[in-house]
């Protein structure tokens, strides 16, 4: 039997754990624990190492997700996933892998129960058969199918049938930032969907809206206030979770801004200012409290 190198599977396992948990910090801990268990396993008796490791990581992540949900319910304001640079998100070889790591999808998956989330990720992103998924989550095959259906419906609520291209997403993002910098409310109105929702995560560390902001009028008023309150410096376009995003300086803090699209307009806007969650998207040598710094993608 050939010797299996755990490192060959690490990127895939990190991508799996990240999709299940919405936090790369937690995903790394889970994968390290899986490595320890792999080292203590009689590997000669493991017929399918990939399936074995996927099962171990999934079950560890499920246990952690159940406890994490309690903490997230007590979080100050909305809890948003930790963003990662696309280059650190693991393999993105298929449309399904790219879609399930997108920021909007990760946020929508927060509505699912831990077993539903596991079933959805394992089926959508990793194309596991239902019998294997059922064994991992401890359910019947029929129940696994039902959970996948429920999860698919909930994740797709309010989403566009057609995913915009990276170029279209970047173009819309640039238009949004340019209009915001000019204070051009007419242009912003055209960019926002009528039912747009803005989410802000300061984690109690940074001033942020404590509830989702609903509707075009309220979102416009909110961003008008932000633009008037802060002087924005060195905004730059970066790519996180498979899509372009804006990394901006607002007063003394940095903020990541990304969004979801419906009918060609911004339907969900995510503003992440909690410095604990920004470390992985900051340029090398900078910390979340520092300005992003210049680069070839500066706007």
Provide key terms for this protein.
disordered C terminus; Butyryl-CoA Dehydrogenase, subunit A, domain 3; Nuclear Transport Factor 2, Chain: A; 6-stranded mixed β-sheet; 299 residues; alpha+beta; 16% strand; 2 domains; 11 helices; single chain
Summed up:
With 299 residues, this protein is of the alpha+beta class.
Structural features, described:
There is one protein chain. By secondary structure, the chain is α+β, with helices and mostly antiparallel strands. The chain has two domains: 6-84 and 110-156, PhyR, sigma-like (SL) domain (Butyryl-CoA Dehydrogenase, subunit A, domain 3, Up-down Bundle), CATH 1.20.140; 166-281, Roll (Nuclear Transport Factor 2, Chain: A), CATH 3.10.450.50. It has helices at 10-21, 24-39, 49-73, 95-100, 103-108, 114-124, 130-137, 141-156, 166-182, 185-191, 216-229; strands spanning 192-201, 213-214, 232-240, 243-250, 253-262, 265-272. Strands 2-1-6-5-4-3 form a six-stranded mixed sheet. Mean pLDDT is 87; it is low at 291-299.
């Amino acid at each position: 039997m050939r010797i299996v190198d755990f490192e060959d599977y690490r990127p895939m396992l990190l991508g799996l754990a990240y999709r299940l948990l919405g936090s790369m910090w937690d995903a790394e801990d889970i994968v390290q624990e899986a490595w320890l268990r792999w080292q203590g396993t009689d590997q000669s008796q493991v017929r399918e190492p990939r399936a074995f490791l996927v099962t171990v990581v999934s079950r560890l992540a499920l246990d952690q997700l159940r406890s994490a949900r309690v903490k997230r319910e007590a979080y100050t304001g909305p809890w948003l996933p930790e963003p990662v640079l696309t280059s650190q998100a693991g393999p993105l070889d298929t449309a399904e892998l790219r879609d399930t790591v997108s920021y909007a999808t990760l946020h929508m998956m927060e509505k699912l129960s831990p077993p539903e989330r596991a079933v959805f990720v394992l089926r959508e992103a990793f194309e596991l058969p239902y019998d294997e998924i059922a064994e991992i989550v401890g359910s019947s095959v029929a129940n696994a199918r039902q959970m996948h259906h429920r999860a698919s419906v909930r994740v797709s609520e309010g989403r566009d049938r057609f995913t915009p291209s990276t170029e279209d997403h970047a173009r819309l993002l640039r238009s949004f930032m340019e209009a915001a910098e000019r204070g051009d409310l007419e242009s912003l109105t055209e960019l926002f969907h009528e039912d747009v929702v803005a989410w802000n995560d300061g984690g109690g560390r940074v001033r942020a809206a404590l509830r989702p902001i609903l509707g075009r009028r309220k979102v416009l008023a909110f961003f008008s206030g932000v633009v008037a309150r802060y002087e924005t410096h060195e905004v730059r376009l970066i790519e996180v979770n498979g899509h372009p995003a804006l990394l901006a300086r607002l007063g003394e803090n940095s903020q990541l801004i990304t969004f979801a699209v419906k009918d060609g307009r911004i339907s969900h806007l995510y503003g992440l200012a909690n410095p604990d969650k920004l470390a992985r998207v900051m340029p090398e040598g900078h910390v979340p409290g520092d300005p992003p710094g210049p680069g070839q993608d500066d706007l």
